[in-house]
Amino acid sequence: MGDTRPVYQRIADDLRDRIDSGDLKVGAQIPSRSELKRAYEASDQTVDRAVRVLKAAGYAQGQFGRGVFVTDRTPLGTLLRTTGAVDSPFAAQISAADTSLSWEATSVTTPAPRNIAERLGIEAGDRVMCTQYEYLANRKPVQLATSWEPLAITEGTDVVFPERGPYAKRGVRGRMAAIGVRVVRASELVGSRAATSAEAETLGCTPGQCLTVLERTHYDEDNRPVETSDVVVRADRWRLEYVIDYTA
Question: For 153-166, how does the pLDDT look when each residue is reduced to its tens digit (9 = 90+)?
Answer without folding.
Answer: 999 999 999 999 99
